[in-house]
User: Fold this.
Amino acid sequence: MADVAEIVLVRHGETEWSSSGRHTSYSDIPLTERGQEQAAALAPRLLGRQFSLVLTSPRQRAIDTCAFAGFGDRAEVTEDLAEWNYGEYEGRTIDEIRSAVPDWTIFTHGAPGGESAQRVGARADRVLARAAAAGSAALFSHGHFLRVLGARWIGLAPDDGCLLGLDVATLCVLGDEHGRRVLRSWNR
Assistant:
């Protein structure tokens, strides 16, 4: 494995649906005013970092977060960074879903008409291979997908992303240590 300088994961800022706990994958919900402020606050945290590759999800909330953070002019849009497709659970809260499936999580049950954990993991693997080959990368995306990305980086199964909590407008840094992939920082 080549040495990886740094892969920075960036979760988008707050949206109306993220603040109310509604699952948002393909719906293009914009950042709230607070979400825009959160995204802009990422810029000084990323200042001075040199990235060979900047990728963003095609959803406007990720594209806008990337722009507010100062990387919009360099970013390439890729469908591989889109959020986990929640299918029939799009726009629903966990309480609504659990009224029908009491112990439901996206990681353990998936969603009718949505993506499987394995399919999301395959997308994550493609993104990670590309980012690692670039040497340093910034990836702007979404909560559940980035959790899978973190799990896959350290060799865990896609559904083990359930072990990695992630708030809006946070940074995570993937790297390596003595030839092993590690989480340098998470949910900061």
In short: DSSP finds seven helices and six strands in the chain. Residues 6-185 form a domain with the Rossmann fold fold (CATH 3.40.50.1240).
